[in-house]
Design a protein that fits this description.
The protein contains 18 helices and 20 strands. By secondary structure, it is of the alpha+beta class. The chain folds into 2 domains: about 150 residues, Penicillin-binding protein 2a (Domain 2); about 325 residues, DD-peptidase/beta-lactamase superfamily (Beta-lactamase, 3-Layer(aba) Sandwich), CATH 3.40.710. Strands 1, 2, 3, 4 and 7 form a 5-stranded mixed β-sheet that branches. It has a 5-stranded antiparallel β-sheet with strand order 9-8-18-17-16, sandwiched between helices. A two-stranded antiparallel ribbon has the order 5-6. α10 packs across α12, α10 packs across α17 and α12 packs across α14.
Length: about 575
């Protein structure tokens, strides 16, 4: 092989070797690029997955947070189902309607849609004449998206506002509580607030039995509920309320009240306190009208307490109706002098102590029993503890922190202890019904049901003696002005001086009368009171016998036939007709 040939061969080999190395390098470079791009793709997918995971975790966390957090009030509007939720009707013992729901609408505004607030106010004022201009303007110019303008419009107001064609305002359906009798049974029935929730009386009691809890968790609906029947008789209630309201005018008193109570069941047939209010517009009554003096006011009940003191003495066995006590001289103790208002200046029998309302005789009966016995007896009658009943407005009685002899003496004739008039009536029922204390109820209760909750607090013989004393005083004593022909009314008056600035004021009286009828077989207790009655002779001249007792007479004469009590005439009750 020539030199030239060998050179050509070497070049050829060198060229082949060089081409092979280039192709290998290019292949390696392509493989590296492919792997790099694959890794980048995996990284991007991983980042995308991680991003979605974080996004959904944030959403899930917020959902959990909203689920456990307390709801925030962002506006005053309620869900539609709560605005339209029904309350049960309240009816009397005969099914007569006392309270019911009626459909109504409320006016609201969406401030972000209001163009000219001044124009809106100007137009609304033509229909809503008492519209608060400043407050309404503030609501219309606010940054919120909802504002109530007026709750519970009448259909006429709604139609007139619709005719104005104001943009940015609307109506929301609601239910409004309506009381057909107005103020007739105001303190018994009570009333509701603007959101249809019970505020006082039996309306509040109904909420306390579970209705409010159901409403709070949204389980109420617009479907009608079973009516709640009360113990009151609307006819009797109307009579009681009329007599109480008229007595305030007649005696120019600052307050008055009355109750009719079934002595065997504890049912309240009628109860009224004045001043009162209209549940359809409770704000107009003010605080004086809202105050239920029968169950939520405490007063020194005066000589009506002598009934309990004498019953205590009889029940203790330390005296009987034939016992006598020396009432000739006043009692002086602790710097005080206890004397009789109309003293007889002689020894008095128990019936005479009751008839003449002797403070001296009553104090000596209390002294016979003793301080601890006296306190225990009044506690047993429920006069020193808070009364248990459905009505939420019940006051706690007051008594001395430490009972001393002077306290026992004054309490014996109704000074030094303050109780509610309703409590006094309940304890009075125990004096005449055979000695059973039955807590009062505003719901229907049968005699059998009452016997299960009754507590025997007096001997039946004591109750029999007290019926005699009530009847005796009704015929011969201060109860004469409460007598109703044919119905055999008996009872005890109480004229108590009121405490003013820590001292008893003789020109301001709290007058009460505790009565029962018919005394041969008592069925009902009636208690009336007149707070600071006045006559033309000046303050304090109107005593219980001339103010509270006539109220009892008026109530019984009108209500007894409705209650089914048959009148009896003649000495033995055999004559059923009166000759005219």
């Amino acid at each position: 092989m020539s030199f030239l040939s060998r050179i050509m061969v070497l070049k050829s080999r060198a060229h082949f070797s060089s081409g092979s190395r280039g192709r290998v390098s290019e292949a390696a470079s392509f493989e590296g690029t492919r792997k790099r791009k694959s890794a980048q793709a995996r990284n991007r997918v991983g980042l995308l997955i991680a991003g979605f995971a974080v996004f959904y975790c944030v959403i899930g966390g917020r959902l959990v947070q909203y689920g456990v957090a307390q709801p925030l009030t962002t506006s005053s509007i309620l869900p539609a189902d709560r605005l339209m939720a029904s309350r049960p009707d309240l009816v009397d013992r005969n099914g007569e309607l006392l309270a019911t729901d009626i459909r109504t609408v409320s006016l609201f505004a969406e401030p972000h849609k209001i163009v000219d607030a001044d124009e809106v106010i100007e137009k609304l004022s033509t229909v809503l004449h008492d519209l608060d201009v400043r407050s309404t303007y503030s609501k219309l110019k606010s940054n919120s998206r909802f504002q109530w303008l007026r709750r519970q419009l009448t259909p006429k107001q709604q139609s007139q506002i619709l005719a104005l064609g104001i943009p940015g305002i609307g109506f929301r359906p609601e239910k409004r509580r309506f009381y057909p009798g107005g103020p007739t049974a105001a303190h018994v029935v009570g009333y509701v607030n603007i959101d249809n929730r019970g505020v006082a009386g039996m309306e509040r009691y109904v909420d306390s039995q579970g209705l409010a809890d159901l409403a709070a968790v949204g389980m109420t609906s617009s479907q009608p509920l079973e009516p709640v029947k009360l113990s009151i008789d609307l006819r009797v209630q109307s009579i009681v309320r009329d007599v109480v309201a008229e007595s305030m005018i007649k005696y120019r008193s600052i307050g008055a009240g009355a109750v009719v109570l079934d002595v065997h069941t504890g049912e309240i047939l009628g109860m009224a306190s004045a001043p009162d209010f209209d549940p359809n517009n409770p704000a107009a009554g003010g605080e004086e009208g809202w105050f239920n003096r029968m169950s939520n006011g405490t007063f020194e009940m005066g000589s009506t307490f002598k009934s309990f003191t004498i019953a205590m003495g009889l029940d203790s066995g330390k005296m009987n109706l034939q016992s006598t006590f020396d009432a000739r001289y006043p009692i002086r103790i602790g710097g005080f002098t206890i004397k009789d208002f109309h003293g007889k200046g002689r020894v008095l029998s128990v019936p005479e102590i009751f008839q003449y309302s002797s403070n001296i005789g009553t104090a000596k009966i209390a002294d016979t029993v003793g301080i601890e016995g006296h306190k225990d007896f009044l506690t047993k009658l429920g006069l020193l503890t808070k009364m248990q009943t459905e009505l939420p407005e019940v006051a706690q009685p007051s008594q001395p922190r430490e009972w001393k002899k002077i306290n026992s003496i004054t309490i014996s004739f109704g000074h030094g202890v303050s109780t509610t008039p309703l409590q006094t009536a309940v304890a009075g029922a125990a004096l005449v019904n055979g000695g059973k204390l039955i807590e009062p109820t505003f719901l229907p209760r049968t005699r059998e049901e009452a016997d299960k909750v009754a507590a025997q607090v007096l001997k039946p013989s004591t109750s029999k003696d007290m019926r005699f004393l009530f009847d005796w005083n009704g015929i011969n004593g201060s109860g004469r002005n409460a007598r109703v022909a044919g119905f055999d009314v008996g009872g005890k008056t109480g004229t108590a001086d009121k405490v003013v600035n820590g001292r008893y004021a003789h020109d301001k009286n709290f007058n009460a009368f505790l009565a029962a009828f018919p005394m041969d077989n008592p069925q009902y207790v009636v208690l009336t009171f007149s707070d600071e009655p006045k006559t033309d002779k000046g303050n304090g001249a109107a005593l219980a016998a001339t103010s509270a007792a006539p109220m009892v007479k008026e109530i019984i004469s009108r209500a007894a036939p409705i209650l089914g009590v048959k009148p009896k005439f003649g000495n033995d009750g055999s004559a059923l007709l009166v000759s005219y």
